[in-house]
Amino acid sequence: MNIVVTREACCGQDDQIGPLKINLSSAELNTIQSLARQIDESKFLQFSSPLNVIEVRSGGQLLFNIPALSHNNGEVKYFVEKTDKANSYIVDGVIKCTWPKSL
Q1: Judging by DSSP bridges, how do beta strands 61-67 and 77-78 pair with one another?
Q2: 3-state SS class at 26
Q3: Architecture of domain 2-98 in CATH?
Q4: Where are the domains of the chain?
């Protein structure tokens, strides 16, 4: 299964030069933790102050937060069990990375 990952731009310039969508292969996504690792290592996410933590959701469910490396020691915070199968949480092959509404 192909998974489409989208993200919100962190600034106007990012909106024009950075890709706001990537495709991942679910064959490489055994667990939620491997999904977080693959998104993070893709260098797809962009951060700018105060936007230093992005929320990762599928089907409206918050799966985890990925911080900028300089924030919170770069530690991912999970809202579902990180060893669960990633495919069981991915709805319609879509993952959305958005800025927290509290900012």
Answers
A1: antiparallel
A2: helix
A3: Roll (3.10)
A4: 2-98
pTM given for the model: 0.87
**Rounded average pLDDT over 68-72:** 71
- Would you say 65 and 57 are in contact if contact means Cβ atoms under 8 Å apart? no
Q: Do residues 55 and 62 make contact, with C-beta atoms less than 8 angstroms apart?
A: yes
Find residue 62's DSSP bridge partners: 57
**36-54 pLDDT tens trace:** 999 988 888 888 888 889 9
Q: What is the DSSP string of 38-88?
A: HHHHTT----BTTB-EEEEEETTEEEEEEE-TTSGGG--EESS-TTSBGGG
- Tokens for 35? 């999904």
pLDDT-above-70 percentage for the chain: 84
